[in-house]
Structures are given as structure tokens and as C-alpha cells.
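Could someone model flavin-adenine dinucleotide with this protein?
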Amino acid sequence: THNKTAHIVVLGGGPAGGATALGLKTLGYDVTVIAEPRPFKAVEGVSERVVEGLRNAGFKQALANLPQPSPRLASWNGATNSANTEMLINRNELDQGIGRDLQAAGVHLVHSRVGKVSETDEGFSVELKGSDVAQLNADFLVEARGRSAPAAGLERLRGSETVSLLQYWQGEPCQPQSAAESFEDGWAWMAAWSDGTRYLQLTFDVASADLPDKAQLIDHCNAILRNLPSAQSFIANAEPTGVIHARTSTPILCREAVGDNWIRVGDAAMAVDPLSGNGIFQALSSALQAPAVINTLLQHPDKRSLAKQFYQQRVDHLFHRFARIGRDFYASEERWWDNPFWATRRNWPDNQPLHQETDPDSLQVVCMPVVSNGLIEEHEVVTTNDQPLGIWHLNGIPMAPVVRALQNRDERVSPQTCLQTGLGMSPEIAEGMTRWLYQNHWL
Ligand code: FAD
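Reply:
Sure, complex below.
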């Protein structure tokens, strides 16, 4: 397309800001990312799925020094499971690697703190702190400052207010390992690094936990840790460093995640409960859709409302999916049923099942926005009761003609024959498609 002269500024250089910037660069845009390093040391556990997501987003250097997966112990509802593993990553290092990937791709990276952002006649003016450049203009703004992104005036859906308190302990060098365990007022996630650093995170309900003031917080947390069976191996032969850091972990959905010349991605659009361990994956999910949405807003103003509708629907859908995963996990802890921490979380955000079995009668062919060649366009897709956002292609085969042919077929004709004669599919492809349709309850 034409006119790719728009200057796009991304605020924040975490996984979401980074992935959006790489995608925009691939589409031919001039992109500047303003990022300040994370102000505290954070360790996070990531699954193979997160690594795959980062790789798909185009990151290379960010993945260069990932540790081997280490054992993860989970103690929940009185049962202990040690079958899983996770990779324990240093978030500061991951974010530095993201910065190197951005520079290698030709994205301008400015190490600075974003100050005031104001709207101008042409776009936005961004004030920078602590760098040689004091101010930058943007035609289009990507808000990717994570949970700290300002959201004044935007409608948001919030779950129960939640806080995670992190402590760092120091012990002998050891095998890396992590553990999650529930307790009466919340849950703990603990990690030990090979260098002996222990990272102990307790998550509480802000309203009901009755947390003491800052001076007594460490003692309060340590009293809980001393009683947690799986914490023992993390605190044995280790000493608290006396540093405690609070991170808000309330689930938040921004109901207005996109405008004509701005978009929010990652945690700034929706942040999930860290319980599910899906944070980075979910941040990437919104960021991977954003470049096509931005491209459409800039190149095809006539399709603005379509592009915005597409993006907001995806953000809402992803948020609810991850929120329901968290809800079901909370509901599986039955020992402190009446404690407000557990009672509020197992009923939020709603009572809809995570997945519904597909009802063949629910299948519909409708026009919906999809990503096509870096743009949002309307196409015929198939929606089902479990897939309200629609399915366009399956292995490159458009599904709307398949469903339409089957819905119009003479009952004496088998589905496979119908696809062969009606759509000209080869017998092998028609057979594979028919099998898929039966397996997925579309027939
Ligand atoms: P972020 O990664 O938060 O990136 C935002 C970036 O913007 C940061 O680098 C920040 O320094 C920068 N920034 C902020 N303000 C400014 C400013 N004014 N100027 C310039 N730069 C700025 N996810 C997992 O996958 N696994 C886990 O184990 C996990 N544990 C978690 C534990 C807790 C307690 C919490 C709260 C979250 C956890 N998450 C975890 C979630 C994960 O951290 C986020 O979902 C993910 O980092 C979101 O990516 P992002 O790019 O949207 O935002």
C-alpha cells in the first residue's frame, strides 16, 4: 500500500510493545519505542507456549539465553503434583533482549521514561525524561506500558483487587526449581535460582486480607511462609534480604482499547491474574493483532470502525477466556470455601463454561472482520456457539463455502460426496475435512 510515512511511537518495551513494533516494522512503518527498564528485579515462570509465542512474534536475541525448564511443584486443594516444569526467566534480561531485537530490526529505541502525553492537532506529543531528546511527536500512539499505563477516563472492568508481595531471600547456590501452593488467604509462588536467590511471592485479596502496614509486612509474609510445606526447601539455609516489593495483580480489562490514532496492547489493554501463568502469552496475543489494526486505521480510514470492532472483540474474548481459566482453578481449591479470597474469585467474571461443546445447529455463515494481508477486512466466516469470533480458514480451506454446501445438501448425499461434487475437493481432502467436521461436532 501507499503512505507509510506515519510515525508511530510505542510507549513501553516489554513483550507487547516489542511485538507490536516488530510487526509494524515488517509492514514498512517508521517506529520508535520508548522504554525504561523495569525498576525492580522480577523472575517469572514461562511455559513452552510462551517461548513459542515469543518466537512467532519475531524475537531471537530475547530467547538466546533462556534457561532449561526446571521442576515445578504444585500444591493445591491438599494434593501435590510434581509432573510439570517451567522456565524461570529474569524479566530484566528478557526485556533487554527484546530491546536488542528491536534495534536489529531497525526500530528506533529510546531509553527514557515517558512523561506527559498530550494530544495535538496532528497526533500526540510525548514528553521524555532522562534522555537527550526532551519531546517526540507521533502520528499514532501505541500504549504498551503494561499495568502502569495511565487509563484515566477509560471504562474498565476490574476483578477483585489483588496484590502480590515479593520478597528476595539469599541462600546457597542450588538447582533451579519453583513451586505454587495455596493457603487460607491466597497463594504462593516461589522460585529458586542457581545463584541461590529465592524469589517468594504471596498473592492476597486487598479488601479482606487485613494486611499490616509496611513495617510489619515482611514478618506477616514470613509467618505464612514458615507454615507452608512447599516453602520449606526455599527458606531453609536462606536469609531474607529485607526487600519487599508489591505488584498489583488485579485482573483488568480496558473496554476502550483502541481509538482512531491510538491503541493499547498487552497488559495495558487487559491484564490477567498471574495465577494462570499466561501473562506474557496473553500480552503477545493482543500485540500480534495490533499491527494489522493500526495499518487499517492509517491506510483505510473508511474501515476504521471495522478495525476497531475487530480489535475490541478480540481483547474482550481473550480476557474472558483467561479470566475463566483462573476462575476454574480457584474453584478447584475447596478447603477455604467461605474465605472471601476464594469465594469471590471462583465466581468471577461469570458462570459461563470455558468451552462449550459445539452444537451443529449453532453453525452460521456470517460476515466478520479478519486479518488478511496485514489489513482488517470483512470476510465470510463460520461462527459456532463455542467460536463466536468465527473461523475463516482451516489449513488454508475457507470454511464458509464448506458449511453452506453441507447445509444445502440433499440428505441422501453423504457429506464427503457433497464436498467433492459441490466444491470440487479431491477425495482425500474431502475425507479429511469430513473427519474433522465430525470430530469437532460440526456435523
Ligand atoms: P510489561 O512487560 O509490563 O512491559 C511494560 C514496559 O513498559 C516495562 O518494561 C516498563 O518498564 C515500561 N514502562 C512503564 N512505564 C513506563 C514509562 N513511563 N516510560 C517508559 N517505559 C515505561 N507472566 C508470565 O507469563 N509468567 C509469570 O510467572 C508471571 N508472573 C507475574 C507475577 C505478577 C505478580 C504479575 C503482576 C504479573 C506476572 N506475569 C507473569 C504477567 C506478565 O508480567 C505480564 O503479563 C507481561 O509482562 C505483560 O507484557 P507487557 O509488554 O504488556 O507489559
